[in-house]
Structure formats: C-alpha cells, structure tokens
Amino acid sequence: DGGITQSPKYLFRKEGQNVTLSCEQNLNHDAMYWYRQDPGQGLRLIYYSQIVNDFQKGDIAEGYSVSREKKESFPLTVTSAQKNPTAFYLCASRIPLGGPQHFGDGTRLSIL
Amino acid sequence: SQKIEQNSEALNIQEGKTATLTCNYTNYSPAYLQWYRQDPGRGPVFLLLIRENEKEKRKERLKVTFDTTLKQSLFHITASQPADSATYLCALDMMYSGGGADGLTFGKGTHLIIQP
Q: What residue of B is the nearest CA neighbor of A9?
C-alpha cells in the first residue's frame, strides 16, 4: 500500500540534544512538508520541499533543519536551538501546487 | 492580518441529524479550499477539495460549499453517525507558483461529537 511512514511514534529529547524525525513516502510525490501541531492549534508549516535537493523555510523554521537527498525521504532535525520542541510533528506529501496532502501518523516529541 | 476561523468549541449533534461546520477566512485569496478529518493521535485524512470557481462539491454524505465573496466554506455531514466524531480541519491552498510559498494554511479545527 502506498503511503507515508513516520518514525518513531514517540521521541524524547534531552537538554542540548539534537533529534531527527524520519519521514518516508512511496507515493512518488515530488513535494514533501513538515508541520508542527500544538494542542488546540492548527498545523503550522516548518519546512517544505518541492523537489529533491531543494527545500524552503515555512512559517516556523527557526530551530529546525531538513534535508532532501532522495525523493522518498525528508527527515527533520529538531536542534537544541528549538527551545520549545514539545509538540506533535506531521509529515505530508503531494504533487506540487495543488491537490490533497497525504499525511503520516505523526511523531510526538517530548522533553526529558 | 490573515486569519482562518473555525468553530472553536466542540459541536454536539444528535445521530441522524446534519452537522454543519464553518470555516471563515480574512485577507486570503485561496485557489482551493480543502477539508480534512483528524482522529486523536493520527494524521489528518483528506476528505474534499473545492476550487475557487466551484460553489458546491459532494461526496457520499459530505457536502462542501465555498463562497469567495463571503470568504466562507461550509462543511455538511448528513445522516451523521457516531463514527463521524472527530476533529475537522479546513485548509487554504494559495497555489503559488514560480518559487513562491507552498503548503496549506490550516484552521485550528472543529471537534465534532455525534451523540447516539
């Protein structure tokens, strides 16, 4: 079945530590996205990539980094510069410029 | 400033009735408007997409309307069932091209509860 796989489902970060969230898709979509969701809030865009080896900052990119070395993969690193990382992180993909987004089932990040 | 507003409080509907959810926006000119369903601890699932030149879209028990003059979309679930209980998100798609921003802009969602 085609879809998006996020791992791990739960992740804990220690003070000063960088952590990486995995996102893999087999839908052959060019565009991929990372969103952050906080309780009672909508999804906020962190980074997006419309094509391999290219990515753009979204609305809340500070403290995060991404890479897009393969079409199927778009990992997100939450760096120690992100002072409030506790949230539900969602990865999505779609054909660029229109059409529905397909989401993974998220990674919940907490601070130890 | 740009805003997307959905019913902030939970919406309680009796089973069998029609549930109507509202999405209002200001200072946007979306090319598309999309509706998603999100269950607790899961990612959103796409339901319907409506274009700026379309007034209404239907899919089984779901109906979406889009009024670009009022800057409003209504999402209807007819013959509602307890299994329809979830959070429903509206999202605006600006459809920028030529290197502009991409990605959907989401509302905070409306929590719908269908009571048996």
A: B41
